[in-house]
Write a structure and sequence with these properties.
With about 180 residues, the protein is an alpha/beta fold. It has 4 helices and 18 strands. The chain starts with a helix and ends with a strand.
């Protein structure tokens, strides 16, 4: 068991170093990355056009996010590819497996739902989701709604993270989630 944990930790360190090296190479080629940007796990930031991409301060990029600053659909017929800026302003949350296409600006303080395909600008302070992504409410409305739901639920702490769970804690979470959603820090 100890050896497996050690191997997992070593593998994680190697992946983090590779990710940092790759990210630094994109920055050297013009990717603009703000302060305190969190990139969780794997990502694709159009390496051949990364200089067209900027990500603002305090933004969270979830796993499997793809920022694609070009569209080669015209290459074979016209002989050239469309390109465009991708601008993600500060304090945004880009959900898991989101794709952002060229010529898109995501306004500050916005939330993009998991699995979204962002083809058009998202106004500041908005929640957008879907394929194609559409604004569904303001970020303030969304936060108020979630806060109201969480007031009636237990918010589970760090001691409920996967590596600390036993059968009793698992059942407690399942019971709390029920037919709705639950919350964990």
């Amino acid at each position: 068991m100890y050896v497996m944990k050690l191997i997992e930790k070593l593998f994680s360190v190697i992946l983090q170093r590779r990710k940092k090296k790759y990210l630094n190479s994109l920055i050297a080629q013009g990717l603009k990355l703000g302060k305190n940007v969190q990139i969780v796990d794997t990502f694709f930031f159009d390496p051949s056009h990364c200089f067209l991409i900027s990500i603002g301060d305090n933004t969270i990029i979830c796993p499997n996010v793809r920022l694609i600053a070009h569209d080669a659909s015209t290459k074979m017929i016209l002989g050239y590819t469309k390109i465009g800026l991708i601008t993600i302003k500060e304090n945004c949350f880009i959900g898991d497996s989101t794709i952002v296409l060229p010529n898109v600006t995501i306004g500050p303080n916005s939330i993009i739902g998991s699995g979204s395909l962002v083809t058009k600008d998202v106004p500041p302070g908005s929640v957008a989701a879907g394929n194609p992504a559409k604004v569904i409410c303001s970020a303030d409305e969304y936060i108020a709604k979630i806060k109201a739901i969480s007031n009636e639920k237990k918010v589970f702490g760090h001691d409920y993270y996967i590596d600390s769970l036993d059968e009793s804690k698992r059942m407690e979470i399942i019971s709390s989630v029920g037919q709705s959603i639950g919350f964990i820090v």
